[in-house]
Amino acid sequence: MPRPDEILYPRRPERTADRRKESMQGKLLDEFFDHPTLLAVSRLISHGYFESIDHPISTGKEGGVFRATKGEGFVAVKVYRIGNATFRRFPPHALEELRREVSIRNLRTLIPAWTRREHTILARLREAGVRVPAPLGYSRNVLVMEYIGDPGGAAPRLKDAVVDDLDALYEDLVAEIRRMWEPGGLVHGDLSPYNILHWGGRIVTIDVAQAVSREHPQARELLRRDVGHLAEFLTRRGRKVKAEEFFARVAPPSAEA
Ligand SMILES: Nc1ncnc2c1ncn2[C@@H]1O[C@H](COP(=O)(O)OP(=O)(O)O)[C@@H](O)[C@H]1O
Ligand SMILES: [Mg+2]
Predict the structure, then answer these.
(1) 62 CB less than 6 Å from ligand 1?
(2) For the whole model, what pTM was predicted?
(3) Active-site residue, from 30, 54, 164, 190
(4) What is the CATH number of domain 155-250?
């Protein structure tokens, strides 16, 4: 098994020049890659999911997403930190569903279950034809998925993306959210310009672990909120969209209405 410091951020000539980055990475190494997480990473490496972790794409209190090298290409590796900050982010409606599988009080079982859930939901959305990163595998609190971007960098979040055609963006959002609902049978539940990437003129939805079934009593309410965030975003960018109109286009009227 490779040593941890060989797995993470292998030294490359261009890196040694950048001391500041090095020390930041040392700090990240301590914060994200505790021993059990390093073991999970090693397991994924020995099963051929990737060869090494290159650098962080995004980091936060609850975890980080890293670019990793696999052969000639890349994969994205999402690490959930085993900690209370991560737990606090999980919405109650999604925790309820996990309660059947694991003890949700125990972070050591909950967070791996959450990681697995993200993998399962990505697979389900992909099957429904929704553009999400392909799920490639997981171990404990580490998820491997398709990398969205190119060697020059990861795809920008919609929030940071330059979008020329806002009408086309609106149509794309409607089509994707609609597909999540039917045939996907899911509501994302945390949709915003932060959890959507923009790549090749199209959107790619990410961060799906909290998605709930269309049958959930709160599903419509969550969908309304998701759509509201995006209507606000479009309007701010100059494409006026009413949340009601957006909502009506993604969800058919409910049976009781
Ligand atoms: N598959 C991916 N390819 C490229 N970048 C990604 C990918 N998944 C996530 N990212 C980047 O990492 C950030 C955080 O990912 P996300 O899944 O939203 O995790 P969280 O919000 O829990 O930190 C995203 O905003 C995006 O910039
Ligand atoms: Mg996110």
Answers:
(1) yes
(2) 0.91
(3) 190
(4) 1.10.510.10
